[in-house]
Amino acid sequence: MAAAPEAIPPLPPGGGDVFGRDGTRTPSRRVWVPEWPVALEFNGLAYAVMMATPVDLTDFTTGFALSEGLITTAAQVIDIAIAEVDAGWIIRATLAGLDAARLGERVRARVAESSCGLCGIENLETIARPLPPVAVHQRITPSAIFTALAALRGAQALGAATGAAHAAGFADAAGTITCLREDVGRHNAMDKLIGAMARAGEAMDGGFILSTARCSYEIVEKAVKAGATTLVTISLPTAMAVARARAAGLSLWVLAREDSVTLAHDGGA
């Protein structure tokens, strides 16, 4: 069983008056979701700076390295040192079996990426690269999705406190959520979930990932690379997300609501 998420650190109170259409003005006390720069260093090389919520950073680092293809198992993470600094957080990780030249090439590629995440012919070719085929699996039932959705809000501690955090969870075939991670960033929440499951040695087949994120191609690719067979999202997918899911054989359920869910691609046996 994956470890429980780290406790949320004390959150500073926010503020801001609420203005009504009728001209009323009401003081409001809110809690803002934490968002800080998190610098990731692998084997001594600065790799990326992500805007993230600084909880479950060990899970995040492991899942990020897996999603990036720097490692293939959590056991390759030899050491992780996490330090809070004035400007944010620094994570220094040592990864086994990582070729220094290949790491350097990947660092240079990331530097060349634009804010949209894609820039240049090399990155276009990377996006077009086939995903690994999804394992043969049974179709999950809509009732399992509804069960997981009903439990999702109660499982989101950071979301309940701030109203502004994404969640990614794993549910078994019956819809019981067995692991859940949160972050201000949708990709980060997925990486945290992937890292938590990998560190616990738990496979992602036999159940499904439930994500509050917009269903873009990146969320599909992270799910496939993590070994998931089914992905459920609360929003509609992009055309590329469906195409990538179809090509890999990933079952994709979208627009998940309390009373309905849409099957975008059926990859089940």
- As residue ranges, the low-confidence spans are 112-116
Q: Do you know the CATH topology of the largest domain? A: Cytidine Deaminase, domain 2
β-sheet strand percentage: 15-25%
State the name of the first-level CATH class of the largest domain: Alpha Beta
Which structural class matches the secondary elements? alpha/beta
Average the pLDDT over all residues and give the rounded result.
Answer: 90
Structure summary, number of beta strands: 12
| Secondary-structure element string | EEEEHEEHHHHEEHEHEHEE
Architecture of the largest domain, CATH level 2?
3-Layer(aba) Sandwich
User: How large is the radius of gyration?
Assistant: 19 Å
The percent range for helix content is 25-40%
Q: Key features?
A:
269 residues, alpha/beta, Ubiquitin-like (UB roll), Cytidine Deaminase, domain 2, 6-stranded mixed sheet, 4-stranded mixed sheet, 32% helix, globular
Textual characterization of the structure:
The protein has about 270 residues and is of the alpha/beta class. It folds into two domains: about 35-130, Roll (Ubiquitin-like (UB roll)); about 140-265, Cytidine Deaminase, domain 2, CATH 3.40.140. The protein is built from eight helices and twelve strands. It has a six-stranded mixed β-sheet with strand order 8-7-9-10-11-12. Strands 4-3-6-5 form a four-stranded mixed β-sheet. The protein has a two-stranded antiparallel sheet with strand order 1-2. Strand 10, helix 8 and strand 11 form a beta-alpha-beta unit. Helix 1 packs across helix 6 (about 185-200), helix 6 runs parallel beside helix 7 (about 215-225) and helix 7 runs parallel beside helix 8. The radius of gyration is 19 Å and the shape is globular.
